[in-house]
Amino acid sequence: MDVPVYRLLLAGAALCPAALLAAAPVSSAFLSFGIVIGSAGGLLALLSSFRPGKPRRRGPALLRRAALRRAGSDLPTLNDQRLAIAKALEAAVDLRAEPDAPPTRETAIARILTRILDSWNASDIAALPRDLTLTLTLLKQCLKAPPGEAGRIAQLFQRPDVVLGLRQEIDMIAKARASYDQSLAAYQATRELQATAPAPGTLTQVLRAMNAPDIDLWHRIVTEHDPTDLAQREAALWCATQPACDHASVAVYLARLADGAQLQNAYIDADSAFLEQVRGIIANCNVGIYRHRGLVYVPPADAVIRLKAELDALASLSDSPRWPDPQCVFTVLEGRKPHPRPAWDLSSGRLVAAPNRSDYL
Fold this sequence. Notes:
Layout: H1 3-13, H2 17-21, H3 26-49, H4 65-70, H5 78-89, H6 105-119, H7 130-144, H8 147-154, H9 160-194, H10 203-209, H11 215-224, H12 230-241, H13 247-255, H14 262-268, H15 272-287, H16 303-318, E1 344-345, E2 350-351
Antiparallel strand pairs: 1-2
Helix pairs in contact: 1-3, 1-6, 1-9, 3-6, 5-7, 7-8, 7-9, 8-9, 10-12, 11-12, 11-13, 13-15, 14-16
């Protein structure tokens, strides 16, 4: 393996701990991402210091020779490419981010480009040779492109597997940042709600009043609500109907329908609105409407038997075709444990304490 490809591999290796951090508590994982990303430059410098001879003023290209000969027809001019690279490097420091926030995709890419430039001893972007300009342009495109396009671009490099592995790590970091931003927004929305006077009426009205979704609060509601309390039942139903609701939360909600024979009682009470909404949740679950899959879910041991029996009983009671089984209830989902929301009292539908940042981040 030649030197520049090995250096690129090191850049990817510096990000590999992200896979392990994905299962760690959110706050510690977010903090570590910044350390992992920032450590690769020192590692490259250390390894370079053991190489004999003077530093190279120009490193060999990472692209295949054939790619270097053909590349450029569908790309901007070299000058525009250099300007775009310089612009991308500005994201290496995100001054707007919270101190414990993981980097954005743009910041992670900027730091990788910076490390590669350092390994080439190249500091003047305007004077960057054609081959190195094309290399960084195509690498930047590959790290940001959709999977199919990224695979095509990666074939232009000497080690497509290394480039695609690096892109996969960038995707994980971007996902961590999105999760962080969502948690921060939920925390800020809860603080704003606490400062609101007078507070909204029911728990459902409180949820509607929040400026950002709180999937962990929604999960607690569907998991702990009392189905005999109409206000709590309404709130849990509202949570499960939201497209942003986590897949695991929807599975928990549907699995609990057998508690107290909720579907049968709704039919006896002529609560057609409740039944139609539940039927819609099942349909949405089976067609993949709920795309957020961040929380862990393990089906209860008796979930399949009890829910199937409840659906059978509803069909028999109503003398109508049986509803389809919600497949999400029977599937194990990998993810993190839900974060606690102890500041909420479900029975009153109120915040009873100030939200604790550590419960969110």
